[in-house]
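Materials and Methods. Structural model of Ras-related protein Rab7. The 185-residue sequence of Ras-related protein Rab7 from Platanthera zijinensis was retrieved and submitted for structure prediction as follows.
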Amino acid sequence: MASRRRMLLKVIILGDSGVGKTSLMNQYVNRKFSNQYKATIGADFLTKEIQFEDRLFTLQIWDTAGQERFQSLGVAFYRGADCCVLVYDVNVMKSFENLNNWREEFLIQASPSDPENFPFVVIGNKIDVDNGNSRVVSEKKARAWCASKGNIPYFETSAKEGINVEAAFQCIAKDALKNEPEDEM
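The predicted structure was written out as tokens:
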């Protein structure tokens, strides 16, 4: 009988400070949202057991600090990642414009063996804010950016309301799995 050992999938969440990385992770893993903003210091991670095609996996989700002063921690955190999630706030143009920097930084630090095909997922968070009236990044603009980077999957979420969070993480897990060597499958 095949071994039933659990496979670990390492997912890194990157994006500017305050875009909701920790909230997305907490909503997905614990189904909880807190209005108390607390900056992540360095990095933190949560795990969630997931089942996919009759196999159990442990999704290890690394939440990194958005502040530049912690970027030097990059190498250690990024190494061995199976998928990278880029998060921005649909109400803050700068957080969207910085996605490129986060993506580049990840590719430099993690130095994946096949950078062209490394799985990224982009999340536009906080679609619930002000009923969408303070939104400055259109879905069309975000999708165009994702298309220009090799058709990166794109999700719009509200970590607060729990909108689309589950779907985004299912895609993240699926993409992380694609990155695993066949012999481990």
